[in-house]
Amino acid sequence: xxxxxxxxxxxxEEVADTFAGQIRGKNVLITGTSLNGIGYETxxxxxxYANLVIITGYNxxxxxxxxxxxxxxxxxxxxxxxxxxLSSLAAVREAAVxxxxxxxxxxxxxxxxxxGGGDFKLTADGLEIQMATAQFGPFLFTKLLAAKLIAxxxxxxxxxxxxxxxxxxxxxxxxxxxxxxxxxxxKYSTLGAYCQAKxxxxxxxxELARRSAGKIKAFSLHPGTIFTNIVQKEHNKADLxxxxxxxxxxxxxxxxxxxFKTMGQGAATTVxxxxxxxxxxxxxxxxxxxxxxxxxxxxxxxxxxxxxKLWDISEQIVDEKFTF
Length: 324
Hints:
Blueprint: H1 12-18, H2 20-23, E1 27-30, H3 38-47, E2 52-57, H4 60-73, E3 79-83, H5 89-100, E4 108-111, H6 129-151, E5 160-164, H7 190-212, E6 217-222, E7 225-226, H8 229-232, H9 237-242, E8 260-261, H10 263-275, E9 286-288, E10 291-292, H11 299-302, H12 304-318
Parallel strand pairs: 1-2, 1-4, 2-3, 4-5, 5-6, 6-9, 7-8
Antiparallel strand pairs: 9-10
Helix pairs in contact: 1-3, 1-10, 3-10, 5-6, 6-7, 6-12, 7-12
């Protein structure tokens, strides 16, 4: 059977329907699944076919709203909620213990959550909160779940880990490796921290693919510009207006050089990264508009030495050696 050609306008539902056979029987964990976000839409379309979809969030009430909405949107879907605060290494460890205790295997892990900007803030671990949520929490969570993911593999299936990055990784010089362990407000800007976090997503995916040597397939992606919760946050407004993404009143700029996608179009590339069979021998790659786009990776996010150093620093910060 020939597979369709996906593009900017492809929806997550179309991708899920195309790869329904790959999704059936799979157990998928998606971080950051609040309503009005692409993580929720990703969970919704996958839940149509999956054996189990695990949704996460750090806010109990918001997570409950997502679970109720998913069960209403997809009657009969098997949804399980998991409290996960990626900004806290202790909370990540607790959540990983819970997942490792599940009787079901884990086939796909999707890192969709992001902190979403704001003033300089340190976590309980002394880390800058955007980088903690995008890199150190996911790094530890992936490390602690790696054995469970690998155990789900077979001769016909390789587990996948997906990182929702952004074209924002192109902005600036990339991850400031010297400032990760001891961040300071003098070097902080909301946009700069966000861009570094998204660069880290790309670097982590490529290094995970390299080190796991096929045991885990890893991908990063740009989902597009979508009017999600993060875009609507007041503290992000000035930067987005200056880039022409939003109008002065905070509404989407329809004349922007960053064309807006619908929620369904915004979640599509994530579902491609998780299930498209054409990616099986492309681990470590970057996707954009539902297709491979390694040529669009910024040089600082494609640098192998930077990826290795970020991995080593991450191991030191979470105090865990990541082996396969």
